[in-house]
Specification:
Elements: H1 2-17, H2 26-34, H3 51-54, H4 88-99, H5 106-120, H6 148-151, E1 173-176, E2 189-191, E3 196-201, E4 204-209, E5 215-220, E6 228-233, E7 239-244, E8 248-253, E9 258-264, E10 270-276, E11 279-284, E12 288-293, E13 300-305, E14 311-316, E15 322-327, E16 332-336, E17 349-351, E18 358-363, E19 370-375, E20 381-386, E21 391-397, E22 402-407, E23 413-418, E24 425-429, E25 434-439, E26 446-451, E27 458-462, E28 466-470, H7 477-498
Antiparallel strand pairs: 1-28, 2-3, 3-4, 4-5, 6-7, 7-8, 8-9, 10-11, 11-12, 12-13, 14-15, 15-16, 16-17, 18-19, 19-20, 20-21, 22-23, 23-24, 24-25, 26-27, 27-28
Length: 499
């Protein structure tokens, strides 16, 4: 009952204030007042409530039994035009007549043209670009559009656009490296494929697990005067080669944390090491490079004599075809692959353009015959070589001592570590050789660089006894997923072919 009364009051308010949808026009209301009975409606309202007919509407403020209907507004509650009475033909005629140029007299046209020329300096009709019909006309001779400069600028070419990739200017992590030897010719850090970072601190070697943060002391030399001069991981990451100042090359098993063998063939300290499958190459202070076959008892299988001073840079190419060596004699030698056997071996290329010691040597991961080298304090240049043709592809002055170079596997870039006098890391775009970013934080010269197995993080150790991790090659999440998908597809194809 209450709901019914509420609906009745609501419909009463609608009667007083709001026009009812589908209500008859005013003329039908007037006929309804004059007729004694209910008037026939031309439109039957849909879902009309019975409260409209049963509930009377009274004028507020007056008493009495007289029933008063809702007052009618003048002219009806809305306007509905009668399109049948509109003179469409007349309107069309007037529009056509207004736009018809034939109606204008020649004298009037000349007057309008003269006014336009005096006011604007040109005829508006001849300079119109947008027209309802016909082709747009050309601008008159001598006319200049000031807005044309804004819309005729060329877009910035892709090569000169600002790099949108975010490169953190601060290190992701800083680790202490006490008692690290401040020696330019040594190679004291290396990062394994199993995510272990090996650091040589004086006469000890420590392993840092990047995933868990665990630190393990792998070894310590028995004699206090003997120090570690180089470390290098095998590709699989389960064995670590260690070079010492006593001319030894040791091989360590990481899982068991024990020494497997001790190889002695040099007569001076071993400052650099590099792996090529089961062949371990070592460079000594005498300028000799020895190849060790770690599978056999007679490990010393070859000797390379191409340097007259200490060998401080040594790196095998990713495909195992060439070995690049840099020495304190300012030479860069490229050696062919030798799988055992004695005899004398000659380099396929020798580069003499550097004017300082060459410690930084790195092979391009996507162009196997491209080699990057960096010179010391008296040279300070980074040079890119084609080892097949012997041509120097490019050279750039780094304005500081070049200690190490690493190529990125995620971008067409490489990073260089420097000593005197900036002590910074520099990211370079290849092949344009333009600077992408500079990373500063070390207070002394950088000694070595190494890269994480995923190619996103670079570790730098310096004479300030700190080791810093820089996330300078972080991949975009979308590109990272695409790369992982491509790698998984390649691995599945390999497994299928093996099966």
């Amino acid at each position: 009952m209450a709901q019914f009364l509420f609906e009745a009051d609501l419909h009463g308010l609608l009667k007083l204030d709001t026009p009812i949808p589908n209500a008859p026009p005013a003329r039908w209301q007037r006929k309804a007042k004059e007729a004694p009975g209910p008037a026939p409606s031309p439109m039957k309202p849909a879902n009309r409530s019975h409260s409209f007919s049963k509930t009377p509407s009274k004028t507020p403020g007056k008493s009495g039994s007289k029933i008063q209907s809702t007052p009618t507004k003048a002219g009806g509650d809305r306007y509905i035009p009668n399109r049948s009475t509109m003179q469409m033909e007349m309107a069309n005629f007037l529009l056509t007549k207004e736009n018809d140029p034939a109606e204008e007299s020649p004298t009037k046209k000349e007057q309008q043209k003269a006014w336009a020329v005096n006011l604007n300096g040109f005829d508006v009709e001849e300079a119109k670009i947008l027209r309802l019909s016909g082709k747009p006309q050309n601008a008159p001779e001598g006319y200049q559009n000031n807005l044309k400069v804004l819309y005729s600028q060329k877009m910035t070419p892709g090569s000169s656009r600002k790099n949108s990739r975010y490169i953190p200017s601060m290190p992701d992590r800083i680790l202490d490296a006490p008692e690290i030897r401040n020696d330019y010719y040594l190679n004291l850090i290396d990062w394994s494929s199993q995510n272990f970072l090996a650091v040589a601190l004086d006469n000890s070697v420590y392993l840092w697990n990047h995933a868990s943060g665990e630190i393990i002391q792998l070894l310590q030399m028995e004699h206090p005067d003997v120090y570690i001069s180089s470390v290098s991981w095998i590709k699989e990451g389960n064995y670590l080669a260690v070079g010492t100042s006593s001319a030894e090359v040791q091989l360590w098993d990481i899982q068991q944390q024990k020494r497997l063998r001790n190889m002695t063939s040099h007569c001076a300290r071993v400052g650099t090491l590099s792996w090529n499958s089961y062949i371990l190459s070592s460079g000594a202070r005498t300028g000799h490079i020895h190849h060790h076959d770690v599978r056999v008892a007679e490990h010393h299988v070859a000797t390379l004599t191409g340097h007259t001073q200490e060998v401080c840079g040594l790196k095998w190419s990713l495909d195992g075809r060439y070995l690049a060596s840099g020495g304190n004699d300012n030479l860069v030698n490229v050696w062919p692959c030798t799988q055992g056997g004695g005899g004398d071996f000659a380099p396929v290329q020798t580069f003499t353009q550097h004017q300082g010691a060459v410690k930084a040597v790195a092979w391009c991961p996507w162009q196997m015959n491209v080699l990057a080298t960096g010179g010391g304090t008296s040279d300070r240049h980074i040079r890119i070589w084609n080892v097949c043709s012997g041509a120097c592809l490019s050279a750039v002055d780094a304005h500081s001592q070049v200690c190490s170079i690493l190529w990125s596997t995620n971008y067409k870039e490489f990073i260089s570590g420097h000593g005197f006098a900036q002590n910074q890391l520099v990211l370079w775009k290849y092949p344009t050789m333009t600077k992408v970013a500079e990373l500063q934080g070390h207070t002394a010269r950088i000694l070595n660089l190494t890269m994480s197995p995923d190619g996103t993080t670079v570790a730098s150790v310096a004479a300030d006894e700190t080791l810093r991790l820089w996330r300078c090659f972080e991949m975009d999440p979308i590109k990272k997923k695409e790369k992982e998908k491509a790698n998984s597809a390649k691995s599945s194809i390999i497994h299928q072919s093996i099966r």
